[in-house]
What does this fold into?
Amino acid sequence: MSAQAPADDYFMYLGTYTDHGAKGIYAYRFQPSTGKLTSMGAVATTPNPSFLVVHPNGRFLYAANESNPAIPAGKDNYVSAFAINQATGQLTFLNNVSARGGWPCHVSIDKTASTLFVANYATGSVASFPIQEDGKLGNAVTVEQHKGKSVNPERQEGPHAHFMVPSPDNRFALSADLGTDQILVYRFDPATRKLTPNNPPFATLKPGAGPRHLAFSPDARFVYVNGELDSTVTAFAYDAAAGTLKTLQTVSTLPAGFKGINSTAEIQIDKAGKILSVSNRGDDSLAIFSIDKTSGKLTAAGRVPTGGKTPRFFTLDPTEKFLFAGNQESNTVALFKVNASTARLTPMQTLKDVPEAVSIVFVPVKH
It folds into this structure.
């Protein structure tokens, strides 16, 4: 069963930072028909599993162990593999391998489910790793070091790879680099798991944007990138044949007149390709945009407070009936009901027993 297939109930796994009391990966049992959540506590003890991804077969989970306290900043950190008991939700550690860079902050899986991509923030590098049949990770096949800097002397003094994801057709892999204001594009060979720079090798955002994450439209015609540093979303037209990006539009994620300090974090699009959402850390809200499916351009459609401080991550559940927002600095996860026709979010409850939740994934329960 696919990890995103409809199901009666799911295990919801939460990645955390473990510097202030969290133990590692936490889990809930989630019932979409009612919105009921049952805490399972910590299901894996591992340092700073900040970003999680689930194998499409629902049997394995991978974590970026970001900034392991036992390893000096800038030195090698690692990525970990776990087996999922699909009946109980418990995780069993399989292995870990060097991330081949400092502070791995994002992981994703290619469309053949044979390769794990990793973005390393501190050292500004990306890497590809083989996923073996037993779920374990092999050592890196390709490591690509980003180069350059941009206009923000504190955050853009060098490259800072923040995100890496395959294109929908699996021919390319795109990486957002906050430090260089670039979306780097790599050709990807699933047979060898190798990455090679595309021609041209990158698209550029406005100086100081600080690209963090990106999202493809469901039809793969457009790519949307949130600027962490300037609180924007940039829309690109995407040429799937060439793997190239052309800028269409840049819009603010903040309400008119906002005067405080803000940075964006997560960006997501619903399955219908109608609604794009971005989390604001500072305004502590989700900025909502409607998408013109013909032109790809965005129109502001409101904002929703996340009910906590610093919403680093949010996601729709697999049914898209609910949205979860992880408020990192208030140690809460807010649950919202989604109105399917209007996309309006209605607050339902707040989970208060997961410290510093920073990513959320779902796995169907196997009865």
